[in-house]
Design a protein that fits this description.
The protein is of the alpha+beta class. It has one helix spanning 11-17; strands spanning 29-30, 37-38, 49-50, 53-54. A hairpin with a 6-residue loop joins strand 1 (29-30) and strand 2. One of its GO terms (biological process) is translation.
Length: 64
């Protein structure tokens, strides 16, 4: 049997507990190499560059 609350949590305490349950807006930066939007401190998914160096190979889109 698990632990159960002894008393009902009041509305104000319930609200204070949930005060941090919100979503933050994404902070995006522009890639210096290709100009795409990306998350800071991450490799660009479009071109594979990070801090001016190519870190990963990306697939090139081919026209049919």
């Amino acid at each position: 049997m698990g632990a159960l609350p002894k008393y009902k949590r009041s509305h104000s305490k319930q609200g204070r507990k949930r005060a941090h349950h919100h979503l933050d807006e994404l902070q995006l930066v522009t890639c210096d190499n290709c100009g795409e939007q990306r998350l800071p401190h991450t490799v660009c998914k479009a071109c594979g560059f990070y801090k001016g160096e190519q870190v990963i190979q990306t697939r090139q889109k081919t026209k049919v």
